[in-house]
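Sample entry (71 residues):
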Amino acid sequence: MDLKEVLAINLRRVRHDKQMTQEELAHRAGLSVRYIGKIEQGHVSASVTVLGRISHALGVEPAELVTRAVR
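Predicted structure, serialized as tokens:
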């Protein structure tokens, strides 16, 4: 699994855990809903700047969004 997929899975999980819609996250992060959707689908790579904006909007550390789950 590449880092884009890890970010996609973790972003969806954290956003759902916080009961936040893509629209709300996009608004809080100053990004488009379409871009958030593409990140969650693993279609685009987020820059470190965007990762920082998303993690701040979610109230989590950026590392939580890019750390692979241990199985």
